[in-house]
Amino acid sequence: MRWKLWLLMAPALLWLLAIFAAPMLHYAWLSTQAETVLTGLQPRPVGAEQWLRLWNDARFWQDTWQTLRFSAVSVLLEMVLGLAMALLLHQPLRGRGALRTISLLPWALPTTVMALGWRWIFNDPYGPINQLLQGLGLSGVPFLSDPAITWLAAVWADTWKTTPFVALLLLAGLQNIPADLYEAAALEGAGAWQSLRRITLPLLTPYLLIALLFRLAQALGVFDLIQVLTGGGPAGSTESLALYAYLNAMRFLDFGYSATVMLGSFAVLLVVAALAGLAFQWSRTTQAEELR
Amino acid sequence: MPRRWPLLLVGLMTGVLLGLWGLAANAVERVNVLMPAPFAEATADLVAAFNRDHPGIELSVTRGPLETEAVSDLAISSLLLGSSPYDLLLMDVTWTPKYAAAGWLEPLEGWLGEDALADLAPGAELGNAFAGHLWRFPLVADMGLLYWRTDLMQAPPRTPAELEAISRRLQAAGQVPWGYVWEGKQYEGLSCVYVEMLRGFGGRWLEQEQPELNSAAAVQATAWLRHLVEAGITPPTVANMAEPEALQAFQAGDAAFMRNWPYAWAELNKPGSPLRGKVGITTMVSETGEPHAATQGSWGLALLAGSRHKAAAVEALRYLTSVEAQKQLNLRWGYTPTRLSLFNDPELLAANPVLAELKLALSDAVLRPLTPIYAQLSDLLYRELNSVITGGIQPEPAMEQLQGNSERLLITAGGQR
Question: Is residue A20 part of a domain?
């Protein structure tokens, strides 16, 4: 009987293998080759040389740190703001339908267009924010030319765009919580804060988790926003792992190393996902203990 | 079965027509050229004229993106897939060795002759040949220029110290908030700015394939760029300035000097521009005794090795880069020609008063290193320089670090040869 099970699953498994495992295996092979413009774009086996190069590449580790920093801060902001937005959109307000549609607009905008828009808004000194600040007699903010500030500008642009996505997911979750739970809690004397903590958040957890996973995976692979908004600058302070892999492949034609960088960032993603999973397990057990 | 006859006849005729159409389509050779959008627009009339004169060839232009590197990405994506839809590619000067080493280009000397570059203006011939072959024919010359305000000073500065002194005087008098704007963003433009200063201080980027970026001159050039920001002559936002941002600041009257390419001259002298008739151009400042260098940034046509219509493509290349075509491009669009005779053409001189200065700048042209790994070398350079400009690291340790990184890159790349 068991083989029938596998037989029935075979098409799906083959499909997964073709679109996921095959490219990964190809990259794994490519990361043991030198395939650059100087080898005439022909692969030449070099063993573990590319991996050694990755390990000793300060730029890879700097980009890893910058990608993690960008992802952690922007995803955290998006989760908090997204939850607030979802709670607001869940309220029976007048014009709620219109409000929900409008709040989705940033997410519907192509990232490139959005990033160009923010590049203009953040322009120093001719962008609207700095013009406003100067009009008030304040000094301008070098949003895109100060390594200490620019990564936050990127975080902000990303948060602006993807918070509605988190809100949408969470709103779906909110609509699945039966209203009588809140009524019962209210009868027992629970306040708004208690219902949020004891009913909304626990029942929303699966949705929070999905939103978190989606956003983390996307943020760790951030490319287009950075490429358009800052090009990785100033002083390399906003370069992400994906941008580095792109530079190696498309600009430097160093495909062996690009594959290595790509696999390296995939390893980083796996570690982060494992840590997030552990944290989630831990929060579940502590929550269960609390309920007991 | 007489009823089937009409059907058979229709089928037969369709077949014959299709065959004829196929023959006709084969008779017309299709040549496709990829160009950045502005060039596609500027050459539209020439392409139409070419197609009128050449019934056997159908030349079409693919409008590439506006940004230089985005055009390269598009071309490379198609070339990597093996069968590129393009026959000709309008290339930036820095791509040539990379594309040639990748085996994507067809040598041109066999088609155009060994002396193909003989009647080009001095400076325009640079950067088209690599490793003993001609890979590209220049269509438009481009070089770094120093723009100065003729209404604010008698003569432009010739040394870094003079530039600083004039800036300080004008800033102190409240005539301009800033002295000098240039391209300081972390991108290729910063390397172009640096190459000019490096030469102006007497240094070299590579000498016999070895980097010399920790030389005294290289450190001086870097220190001067940082000094401009620290002294308040250049705004700190220069760290995010590309050509459009520098032009925006200069055109708004916020700076007395700007480093930019020839296109800015037409922009600044457009009807309605606040600086119309108040701008002069010259070459970059340099220390006494050192050359006033202009980074060469020309665009040229290259023939792709995978083209199936090479003869027709070369015909189009010849036409688009001809004296007559370049003359039109200059008269209508302000593009700087590469043919020497055009710099003495009375009609062009009348229409384009800065042509003499452009020729002078072109003769001082400095090439960025001709190597297939130029993109990596330049990436190291502009990242490090941008760190210095934003105050993240001092000029001297920065250049030591850059020298080490550049040496390592050349060794790694050499080992893979």
Answer: no
